[in-house]
Amino acid sequence: MNGTAIITGAASERGIGRALAERLAGAGWHLGLLDIDPEVKEVAAALAAAHGVSAAGAVADIADPDAVDAAVSVFEADLPPVTALVNIAGVSSPVPLVDADLATWERVLRINATGTFVTCKRVVPGLVERGYGRVVNLGSTAMQNGGGTYSKSTYAASKGAIEGLSRALALEVAPHRVTVNVVAPATIDTDIMGGRITEERAPAFLAQLPVGRLGTPREVAALVEFLIGEEAGYITGATYNINGGIRIG
Ligand SMILES: NC(=O)c1ccc[n+]([C@@H]2O[C@H](COP(=O)([O-])OP(=O)(O)OC[C@H]3O[C@@H](n4cnc5c(N)ncnc54)[C@H](O)[C@@H]3O)[C@@H](O)[C@H]2O)c1
């Protein structure tokens, strides 16, 4: 019997979080969906109706501890015990450092890095207390490669913070049967890279992709589903690349 998975960033129609929510609901997971976009409530209601699982949607900025606390408190009161946290919410930034102002840096770091800290801080103590849990945080090839096809230094730095946090947290909670891993994608066909990757934009992305195509949100969701499963208990502190070969190793 599956528990509840909390997924941040599950509202975006073509995004990785929505694809994961759909996949997990189909597999019988209960869902606490958290997003700054109010659409998240309809997403949760539709998945509950379609799959017969319990699901709740809550509107919150992941970097706001009070808002996250309120949302998670509702999940804890209304849903089966939380056994997984998947931090997918995030923003990109195509601005190179020479053009970036402090506000850009602070916004991207606040949402991506602080947001991941805030949700982990709120949810992980409960996993530790119950002696079981899975955490997956979204990194990016941009951190490993010195920027991506679209996103530049500020975004790469924010994902570096997420990886460092994840590895350290993995060690801190390992004795409590809680695992923490990173999934690092590149060039998944969503709208985060300045909108849809249209036919005109596609060649610039495809030129860097050895597999010759963009990745899909469903492919990322399948990997996350494995990592939050019971059988993945011996995997922790790891980074799983899902990048079409844009980076090897
Ligand atoms: N698409 C890619 O190629 C790619 C590559 C590497 C990493 N990623 C990472 O995957 C994750 C999901 O990306 P996506 O492509 O599905 O993007 P997306 O834009 O489709 O989805 C992002 C979601 O995060 C939510 N969000 C943004 N700021 C928020 C905040 N402050 N509080 C709560 N929710 C907030 C948005 O409303 C949206 O639902 C991100 O962390 C991104 O950095 C994506």
UniProtKB/TrEMBL annotation:
GO biological process, one term: fatty acid elongation
Residue ranges of domain Ketoreductase in the record: 3-191
Keywords, comma-separated and alphabetical: Oxidoreductase
Protein source organism: Amycolatopsis acidicola
Molecular function in Gene Ontology: oxidoreductase activity, acting on the CH-OH group of donors, NAD or NADP as acceptor
Keyword Signal: no
Family annotation (InterPro entries): KR_dom, NAD(P)-bd_dom_sf, Sc_DH/Rdtase_CS, SDR_fam
SMART domains: PKS_KR (SM00822)
Protein name: SDR family oxidoreductase
Coiled coil regions in record: none
UniProt record similarity statement: Belongs to the short-chain dehydrogenases/reductases (SDR) family.
Pfam families on file: adh_short_C2
Domain of life of the native organism: Bacteria
